[in-house]
Amino acid sequence: MKRLIFSYAQKGIIYVLLLILGFVYLYPIIFMVTTSLMDMEDLVNPTVKWIPTSLYFGNFAIALKVLDYGKSLLASLAMAGLPAIFQTISCALIGYGFARMEFPLKGLWFAMLIFSFLLPAQVTMIPKYIMFNAYGMINTPLPSLLPALLGQGIRSTIFVLIFYQFFHSYPKSMDEAAQIDGANTWTIFLRIALPMSIPSIVVSLIFSFVWYWNETYLSGIFFGRVIQTLPMKLQAFVDSYSRLYPTSDGSTVNALNESIRMAGTLLTIIPLIIFYLILQKQFVESIDRTGITGE
């Protein structure tokens, strides 16, 4: 009886802790959704906290206009999706090379790879800007696409290590058997190694997409004058709103309020939520799987 009571108490404590942690993570989302659906009367009413008296979608209509949503969404998908794909491909190649091949100064190159990850982005920002400016790439997508294609994208080292660990884990006898059958290195990589690394590919794609999507500082420096993504538009939300809805007479009718801000923020993260929901099953499986045990 005591064991049963202890077991129930233990489960109860675990559930309470999980509920607390879940609330901490969900609170900002719940607050964002409820606030974005409030009109001005609900917003200034101290008795209205979580549930609006009526659902008001006018805030989203205003936020869509301020963000120039259609154009900004396409720019965000391009400037996050293409680098994510390029980075995944390049990191898979680099990880496979380090895991399955021998070449001169391999340890040194691997150490330099780790060292490049330890350097803050601010340290290399000025040299990168000078280099891209010398080649006429500023205000073009190339400063984002080329590093991703060459394995120098945002936090590429993490993805190289993920692929390295995976490719290093499966038996070398599989490669040797393929070589006996006449397969070359590219064939082994494309038909044996790459199909088995789907979990690593999914992880790399998701995290690369999210990190490139949220990048505003370097993007604003390299191509911010000609390409405006949703996070960059959100960063300048107040200025854009002031230009579209001026309040010269001091009236508060067109004044920016918290509901419109929350609507704009929610519209900015909705594509990320949809992207995760599409790949949720593969992502969970990729976290659970640890690869094939080596020899």
Short description:
74% of the residues lie in helices and 0% in strands.
What is the rounded distance between the termini? Answer: 48 Å
How many strand segments?
Answer: 0
The total domain count is 2
CATH H-level superfamily title of the largest domain: MetI-like
CATH architecture descriptor of the largest domain: Orthogonal Bundle
Structure description:
This protein is an all-alpha fold and 295 residues long. It has 16 helices and no strands. The two termini are 48 Å apart. Residues 290-295 have low confidence and may be disordered.
Structural features:
295 residues; mainly alpha; 16 helices; flat; disordered C terminus
